[in-house]
Design brief:
The chain has 695 residues and is an alpha+beta fold. It is built from 29 helices and 27 strands. The strands form 8 sheets. It has a 5-stranded antiparallel sheet with strand order 8-7-11-10-9. Helix 15 packs across helix 23 and helix 27 packs across helix 28.
Length: 695
């Protein structure tokens, strides 16, 4: 305890020339017995005590006389950081009952009195008593304390639990009445401790230590500290069990085929099993305690013990031969305390053969690793997934990244298979909403009668067979995230009006509902149709068009960027190499020439299907012309060159079907609804055909 902990701070001071009247006024307002007198620089000049003031008045001094002649000049001063014992020694020599506290420069910081010192002792004693009581209350061992007459004055919670009594029931009772056989009276009589005494109480065997409480050579009481002897026996049994387990583990490690060595954090060997010792002709007892590098050449166990970084399936050369080793850190309570190494003595050629057999499996696993990696980002594509070297596409990706930062509606335009949905997912993943849902609706694939309920959901009882409690629509599911409206040009006029309301007000009504539903969404839309012509023809609302056409991204078809064909081929080869366990390195010049000059009506989707087919039919390390689909090969052959390849009936039918569908799409300018009607099939059936043919 230091002086600054118990001094009186912010005391008023007087200066030379101050009158007796002013001093009396200060004394009346405070309970101080003295006032420090300081000069203009704040340095201590003396002390005016109440006794000094009484002397002045008895001497007949007037109230307006200065106090200068009545100051006590011999003043006890103490620094702020003076310890309490030093202050006690200073006060013993003080002629007055108080002192002044000064800083290093002699400035007055406060005063202290003998009363302050006594109160500080009381405060310190109370604090010490509180700390001791807290310790007693928190002790795991039981504690009984008695006064000089042998009456119980304290019983801590651990003692209550061990003895099965409540403190309030035994306070004030004699210890021998409350706890027969504890015999604290003998300890108080002799004034000597008694350690390791066995005491039985309430059916429990307790181990007790008794000690007297001495006050200046006089016995003022005694204390007994005890713990459950049964608990100690359990600990001893557990230690014996651990010892047995250690012996068992050592036996298991000694008979293991692999070599085991353990080091501490400094790299010194703490254990080496018999298998490793026998293999290298070592004495385990002599090896323990030595540095591992002195016993096993090229060992890195000491490095692992220091860094905590594991090293698995590494090759280590010992005595001119190579062995497969794994080194793992030993971690205890988050701290690396050593390392363990395992050395395999099996023939290295066998391990190489195993590695070769595992290589084929690893290539397949690579594909699934990529899929799992995508699953970590909800399975969506990012801008890194868009493979392109075309300057136009590079610029388009940059614009899309910039648009992703905002909340405005984005209209993505391009032919089928150019990657409109891929761009939509990438924009979502690069936007502030990437943590929210990404909901896709294909406006052309859902029947008109179901579109409204799919978009906006329905209320309970909206129609016969409606789910109880209703069902949320796609817009409601997209709340807090992004909704992607694919094939927006195929939406019915009635639904266009309702979509316009959502874009304007961010609210809608469920089918059969009476209350509007508000949503926080970002809208992305895509189409391969000419919306401007549709607006001019009156089949697409102009106000909806302008709402959607805030930011437009036009994805060029693959035929306009032939420089992207080869990078895409390599990307698809990598994908199918991983998936199918193949090892294709590329395509030969003939195949590349065909792919670069083909017009790709199905764009990137068609190119991927061609690569997948070629990977399944190719036999070498590269894709050749004969591995390409027949319709691509025919386009390359000269009219004078006879066709050597005979197509199957299924191939010919597929080619004819492909040409018919492409013709219909060209006539309808990409309108799949009209094309399906022209071909006499449903719109969903047309989508299945397009997907199958890679269009």
């Amino acid at each position: 305890m230091l002086m600054k902990d118990f001094m009186t701070q912010d005391v008023p001071v007087i200066s030379p020339g101050d009158t007796i009247r002013r001093a009396i006024g200060i004394f009346r307002r405070t309970r101080l017995d003295g006032l420090p007198a300081v000069d203009a620089a704040g340095q201590l000049l003396g002390l005016l005590t109440r006794v000094n003031l009484f002397d002045a008045l008895l001497a007949g001094s007037g109230l307006e006389e200065p106090v200068d002649d009545y100051l006590t000049r011999r003043v006890v001063t103490v620094g702020l950081d003076a310890p309490y014992p030093d202050v006690v020694e200073v006060v013993k020599t003080s002629p007055v009952g108080m002192g002044v506290v000064v800083d290093d420069s002699g400035g007055v910081q406060g005063v202290f009195t003998k009363v302050d010192m006594i109160m500080a002792l009381f405060k310190d004693a109370d604090l010490l008593n509180a700390r001791l009581r807290a310790i007693y209350q928190a002790m795991h061992n039981g504690l009984v304390s008695v006064d000089g007459a042998g009456h119980v004055i304290m019983l801590n919670p651990a003692a209550e639990a061990l003895l099965g009594v409540c403190e309030q029931d035994v306070l004030g009772r004699h210890v021998e009445q409350a706890f027969p056989g504890l015999n604290l009276a003998m300890v108080m009589e002799t004034g000597q401790e008694k350690v390791g005494k066995k005491w039985e109480y309430g059916g429990r065997a307790l181990l007790v230590n008794c000690t007297p409480v001495l006050d200046g050579g006089r016995t003022a009481g005694a204390m007994a500290i005890f713990q459950d002897f049964t608990e100690l026996e359990q600990v001893a049994a557990e230690l014996e069990s651990v010892r047995t387990l250690q012996h068992t583990l050592q036996t298991v490690l000694d008979i293991a085929y692999d070599g085991i060595v353990v080091v501490n954090r400094e790299g010194s060997i703490t254990f080496i099993n018999q298998a490793l010792a026998d293999f290298f002709g070592l004495d385990p007892e002599k090896a323990v305690g030595r540095q591992v590098t002195e016993v096993l050449e090229n060992s890195r166990l000491h490095v692992v013990a220091r860094t905590g970084i594991p090293e698995t399936s590494q090759l280590q050369q010992v005595g001119g031969a190579y062995y497969v080793v794994s080194r793992l850190p030993i971690v205890e309570k988050g701290r690396v305390v050593g390392a363990v190494g395992k050395m395999t003595f099996r023939n290295l050629e066998e391990i190489k053969e195993l590695a070769r057999r595992l290589d084929s499996l690893e290539s397949k696993l690579n594909y699934y690793r990529e899929e799992l990696k995508k699953a970590g980002t909800s399975g969506y594509y990012t801008f890194e997934s868009i493979i392109s070297v075309s300057p136009v596409m590079v610029q388009l990706k940059g614009e899309a990244m910039q648009a992703a930062r905002g909340l405005s509606t984005v209209l993505i335009r391009g032919e089928s298979g150019t990657g409109k949905e891929l761009f939509a997912q990438a924009i979502h993943m690069a936007s502030p909403r990437h943590g929210g849902p990404f909901i896709k609706i294909n406006c052309a694939a859902i029947p008109d009668q179901l579109l409204e309920s799919e978009f906006f959901g329905y209320a309970s009882g909206a129609f016969t067979g409606a789910r109880k409690g209703g069902k949320p629509g796609r817009f409601e599911l997209a709340n807090g995230g992004t909704i992607f409206l694919d094939e927006i040009g195929d939406m019915s006029p009635g639904l266009q009006a309702k979509l316009l309301r959502v874009l304007q007000d961010r609210e809608f009504d469920r089918v059969g509902g009476t209350k509007p539903v508000r949503v926080d969404i970002r809208v992305l839309a895509a189409t391969n149709r000419n919306l401007e012509e549709m607006v001019a023809d009156g089949v697409f609302r102009a106000d909806l068009y302008y709402r959607l056409n805030v930011i437009t991204l036009n994805i060029p078809p693959l035929r306009e960027r032939p420089e992207d064909v080869l990078p895409l081929v390599h990307s698809f080869l990598g994908k199918y190499n991983s998936f199918l366990g193949t090892g294709f390195t590329g395509a030969d010049p003939g195949a590349v020439e065909i792919m670069k000059h083909y017009h790709w009506p199905g764009n990137v989707r068609e190119l991927e299907n061609v690569v997948e087919r070629a990977v399944n039919f190719a036999t070498g390390e590269t894709i050749k012309v004969q591995d390409m689909p027949p319709y691509l090969r025919r386009g390359k052959q000269s009219s004078a060159e006879p066709i050597k390849t005979v197509s199957t009936l299924r191939d010919r039918l597929s080619e004819a079907e492909r040409e018919i569908i492409l013709s219909a799409l060209q006539v309808t300018q990409g309108n799949k609804t009209r094309a399906a009607r022209m071909l006499g099939m449903s719109r969903s059936r047309l989508y299945e055909k397009l997907k199958k043919l890679g269009l």
